[in-house]
Write a structure and sequence with these properties.
There is one protein chain. By secondary structure, the chain is α/β, with parallel strands linked by helices. The protein has two domains: 181 residues, FAD/NAD(P)-binding domain (3-Layer(bba) Sandwich); 119 residues, 3-Layer(bba) Sandwich (FAD/NAD(P)-binding domain). It contains six helices and 19 strands.
Length: 308
């Protein structure tokens, strides 16, 4: 294993991490970004982004992710695709261990984001990749002419549900309340779409099938009545869980695992900053993640100047 020293190591190459990297690199700080999957984070698997400033016609999520990555690399950012296992404080530096290497950093930005939250019901894990999905743009084409269910009532559920109508013959949006939480424009689009129907006040208690998803057990949360409905696929969009496991016990977190930060995106450990969806109080929007990445990078720059 090699051990290289950087001014900053940024864990995560989503909107927050890549924006932070652009700012630190432009400040002539040697910058390493570590990412275990792909650049862009969740935005890379989103079909269309319509609310990011500067793109009035919208832009594909994968396109904006690639542009952000290219911009970071242009300014000298090193991006390594490795899975970070530990972030450990040392006397003068932080030690970042991956499955392949060890790196030292004068300061660290945590930008690991959050993962899609699971339902936690029988059959869910068993049928991942066989009818259960958390990414419509990744798996929607497999359900051409099929009957699918979308679980959730926020922007993600509505946006991905609308996208699925390009392939599925029917999309049933299952929501545990009697009204949606998503933006007005997405609600209007979904309600006008003839392929979409809503199942209110309902949750999925079980996902059933043999080699693949065939049906779901639904339960009305008001009457507690249950019924089985056929389904070829179940797409889950019920929020996020922070990817903060590698710093558990190191920095202060809330009860859900979101990293708590103060002014300047500083965590409870001097020299460690947090930005984006990993941070308590984040609004889970790309434009906000980019802003937080910028703020964390500027705060990190000031921190290093004070250490000299």
């Amino acid at each position: 294993m090699s051990t290289s020293l950087f001014d900053t190591v940024i864990v995560g190459a989503g909107g927050a991490g890549l924006t932070a990297a652009i700012y630190t690199a432009r400040a002539n700080l040697s910058t390493l970004v570590l990412e275990k999957l792909m650049p862009g984070g969740q935005i890379a698997s989103t079909e269309g982004v319509e609310n990011y400033p500067g793109f009035p016609e919208g832009i594909m999520g994968a396109d904006i992710a690639q542009r952000m990555e290219a911009q970071a690399v242009k300014y000298g950012v090193q991006i390594n695709y490795e899975d970070v296992k530990n972030v450990l404080p040392r006397e003068k530096f932080f030690l970042i261990e991956t499955s392949e290497n060890r790196y030292q950093a004068k300061a660290v930005i945590l930008a690991m984001g959050a993962s899609f939250r699971m339902l936690g019901v029988p059959g869910e894990k068993e049928f991942i990749g066989r009818g259960v999905s958390y990414c419509a743009t990744c798996d929607g084409a497999f359900f051409k002419g099929k009957n699918v269910m979308v679980v959730g009532g926020g922007d993600s559920a509505l946006q991905e549900g609308i996208f699925l109508t390009k392939f599925a013959s029917q999309v049933s949006i299952v929501h545990r309340r009697d009204q949606l939480r998503g933006s007005s424009i997405l609600q209007e689009r979904a309600k006008k779409n003839p392929k979409i129907r809503f199942i209110w006040d309902t949750v999925i208690d079980k996902i059933q099938g043999n080699s693949k998803v065939e049906s779901v057990l639904l339960r009305n949360v008001k009457t507690q009545e249950t019924r089985t409905m056929p389904a070829d696929g179940v797409f889950v969009f019920i929020g996020h869980a922070p990817n903060s496991g590698i710093v558990k016990g190191l920095v202060e977190m809330d009860e859900e695992g979101y990293v708590i930060s103060g002014g300047g995106y500083r965590t409870s450990v001097p020299g460690i900053f947090a930005a984006g969806e990993i941070r308590k109080g984040s609004v889970h929007q790309l434009v906000a993640a980019a802003g937080e990445g910028c703020g964390a990078a500027l705060a990190l720059q000031a921190y290093l100047e004070n250490q000299e």
